[in-house]
Design brief:
Layout: H1 6-33, H2 37-50, H3 55-75, H4 79-92, H5 97-109, H6 113-126, H7 131-144, H8 148-153, H9 156-171, E1 176-180, H10 186-194, E2 198-202, H11 206-218, E3 225-228, E4 247-250, H12 262-272, E5 291-293, E6 296-305, H13 307-313, E7 319-320, E8 323-324, E9 329-332, E10 349-351, E11 361-362, E12 367-373, H14 377-385, E13 389-394, E14 399-400, E15 403-411, E16 417-419, E17 430-434, E18 442-443, E19 448-454, E20 461-468, H15 470-483, H16 492-500, E21 512-515, H17 518-524, H18 527-544, E22 579-583, H19 591-595, E23 601-605, H20 610-622, E24 631-632, E25 655-657
Parallel strand pairs: 1-2, 1-4, 2-3, 4-5, 9-21, 22-23, 22-25, 23-24
Antiparallel strand pairs: 6-11, 6-12, 6-15, 7-8, 10-17, 13-19, 14-18, 15-16, 15-17, 19-20
Helix pairs in contact: 1-2, 2-3, 3-4, 5-6, 5-7, 6-7, 9-10, 12-14
Length: 667
């Protein structure tokens, strides 16, 4: 018979497979006993590939083996192998919430928070009662769902006006809608509720995409809104959406209007995703033309005096707890509008000016900076190619010029608008451009503030800020009258240009620039903070030499006089061996240098950036520290586990400095 020999072969194969599975299981158990988790994991993979019916039986042991092997791979920095193991495990157990959660934990620890959120979210969906996964998901959501989302969703005025503008557009014929930067999906739901035939929404953040899916489903609109986890720049027709749309809605605007990429995304949308715009004079009641909400924006500005802004962006002290800051060092905040750096950084910070501590004072009237039409492809393209505009604004009030504050009016359509001015209670803060090149610049009525405005890299930049007094304006005018008839300038813009190019004073030569976070600059300006640490260190060091503590009040540094360096060997704090002081505070800190003034102290700093080390060396030199008095601890560390070990194992740290309080006040 044809099948007479087939059955015995199949039986032999099955017997051989069963024997191999049994031996592999036995080997896996032996490897677990010897803690050879990598080999045990390989055996379990073989078992499950040969005998998938054993999945439930070995599932718990397989999980344990996977997790222990993953820990070893993590410790060995074999990250690719680690994730490869998890991918294999999830192929075998795609609906295992424990494996999903563990994968998310590894991703989170390695900084892949968006991806981690996806696995935590999946684990919670698989088992809503899995508390570990729920806690992990909420934890990563605190990182990824930024606080402004809550403020924005609670902005009733913003939501109402956007809803009205979208409803008006849909009722006028815009039946296909694309929501760019959907967030929670609220604008998409406004469009669907208004009766749009087709609604598409794209969101780049994995966390926000998952959240939008849940929100849309909770509102029973998942069938009518197609959510895409991608950038709008990557959307293709018909691959991702079947048609060009008649309406794009977006709220990808930050405090500086352009910082979230609205210009780039709308240029792409007009070229690839939107129907052509309506020609002038044509009626658009049938949705045959494309348009954008918001339709346009007007950007405004105002020069202000504000001590709180000054404190965070300009170092206003020269002597800190006896430490002199040299003139050849310039501290600069990240908001400094430099065009010399290759990296594109946000050239402004943000503040809710109506709530800024200490308030602010307007030094000029509100002035218009620029307008932009989001429904004009030509204007959007020209915006990024346009040379900087020069603006000259008269001063109306006397005061210290600390910043240019910027806001905008968002015109959603010809009827609905939103303002982000300091006088409005909205979810938006104002963009703040600190004035750093004109330190302690006092201006008065009769002066003019001049600046250059551009948007060449899709950020609104305000730079080259100068101040011109009335007398200097007259000198310039007389100079032009003598050498060239003033009327020949042709227009006021050329005069403004000439005035703007006049330097009121030449800045001192800057040898070294140190970029610090605004919180680090504010800390440098905090004299009581540094005096407090100095007194605490002095008290500790005195307690280590109690027989000389009574002489401590006679040392020069006790009277806040600038020390000429570490005290000589006959100081109250001197001993045969120096006192070793380590500062492990976060970020830039001059506390080790302060420690170095307290006697025979060998201070160590744990700053990570080379630029910060250079500046600390310059400050040490300016305060006459002997060369290499200040050491940088990370230069002596070969691996992270050695960070808190002394170079000489027989010596201990006398003091370890740790500022454990975050700027927000949290520990």
């Amino acid at each position: 018979m044809p099948n007479s020999r087939t059955r015995p072969i199949r039986g032999a194969e099955a017997a051989g497979r069963d024997e191999l599975v049994a031996r592999s299981l036995q080997s896996a158990e032996h490897c677990l006993g010897t803690q050879d988790f990598g080999t045990a994991y390989a055996h379990y993979l073989l078992v499950l590939s040969l005998a998938p019916e054993l999945k439930e039986e070995v599932k718990e042991t397989f999980q344990y083996t996977l997790f222990r092997w993953a820990e070893e791979l993590d410790a060995l920095s074999r990250i690719q192998d680690l994730f490869g193991c998890y991918e294999q495990a999830l192929e075998l157990f795609p609906d295992d919430e424990v494996i999903c959660n563990s994968m998310g934990e590894h991703l989170f620890r390695m900084g892949f928070r968006d991806e981690a959120a996806g696995y935590f979210h999946k684990a919670v969906k698989l088992n809503p009662d899995f508390n570990d996964a729920k806690e992990n998901f909420y934890r990563v959501a605190n990182w990824l769902v930024e606080r402004w989302h809550f403020i924005m969703l609670n902005d009733t005025k913003r939501n109402t006006i956007y809803n009205a503008a979208i409803q008006k557009a849909v009722c006028s014929g815009s039946q296909s809608v694309l929501d760019i930067g959907a967030g929670t999906g609220i604008l998409s739901m406004f469009a669907k509720k208004a009766g749009a035939r087709s609604v598409y929404a794209c969101e780049l953040s994995k966390t926000m995409y998952e959240l939008a899916c849940d929100v849309v489903a909770a509102n029973k609109m998942e069938a009518g809104i197609k959510l895409l986890h991608m950038k709008s720049l990557d959307i293709e027709i018909p691959k991702h959406i079947p048609e060009r749309v008649s309406l794009v809605v977006t709220e990808t605007v930050d405090a500086g209007l352009f910082g979230e990429g609205i210009v780039e995304s709308l240029i792409h949308a007009w070229e690839h995703l939107l129907l052509q715009p309506k020609a002038k004079g044509k009626n658009d009641n049938c949705g045959k033309y494309g348009k954008v909400i918001p339709a346009s924006a007007v950007v405004f500005g105002m020069a202000v005096e504000c001590a709180e802004i000054r404190r965070h962006h300009r170092v206003g002290v020269k002597n800190i707890a006896g430490i002199h800051l040299p003139t050849n060092v310039k501290f600069q905040s990240p908001a400094y509008p430099s065009v010399d750096t290759e990296e594109t950084v946000e050239p402004y910070t943000t503040e809710k000016m109506s709530r800024v501590p200490g308030g602010y004072k307007a030094l000029t009237e509100c002035f218009e900076i620029m307008t932009v039409d989001f429904n004009s492809l030509q204007e959007l393209k020209s915006l990024t190619a346009k040379t900087p505009d020069k603006i000259v604004i008269p001063v109306s009030n006397e005061g210290m010029l600390d910043a240019i504050v910027v806001w905008f009016v968002l015109q959603l359509d010809d009827e609905h608008s939103l303002s982000t001015s300091p006088s409005e209670e909205t979810c938006w803060e104002q963009a703040v451009y600190p004035v750093l090149d004109l330190a302690d610049c006092w201006i008065k009525p009769g002066d003019h503030v001049m600046m250059e405005v551009s948007c060449q890299d899709c950020y609104l930049r305000i730079q080259n800020i100068k101040v011109l007094g009335l007398e200097q304006e007259m000198d310039v005018a007389q100079s032009f009258t003598r050498n060239k008839d003033l009327a020949s300038l042709g227009n006021e813009a050329e005069l403004c240009s000439a005035l703007a190019n006049l330097q009121t004073s030449k800045p001192d030569a800057i040898e070294q620039i140190c970029v610090l976070e605004s919180t680090e600059i504010a800390l440098l300006n905090n004299i009581p903070y540094h005096e407090g640490f100095k007194m605490a260190m002095k008290k500790v060091l005195s307690s280590l030499t109690p027989e000389k503590a009574s002489q401590a009040m006679d040392t020069p540094c006790q009277n806040n006089e600038m020390s000429s360096g570490p005290a000589p060997n006959n100081s109250v704090l001197s001993s045969s061996e120096p006192f070793y002081v380590l500062d492990v505070s976060e970020g830039f800190s001059i506390l080790p240098i302060i420690a170095g003034t307290l006697g025979k102290v060998k201070p160590y700093s744990s700053v990570e950036k080379d630029s910060h080390r250079i500046i600390l060396d310059l400050i040490s030199e300016a305060n006459h520290f002997p060369k290499e008095t200040l050491e940088f601890w990370l230069r002596h560390v070969e691996d992270e586990s050695a960070v808190l070990q002394r170079p000489k194992s027989d010596k201990l740290w006398s003091i370890i400095i740790l500022d454990v309080i975050e700027p927000s006040g949290l520990i």
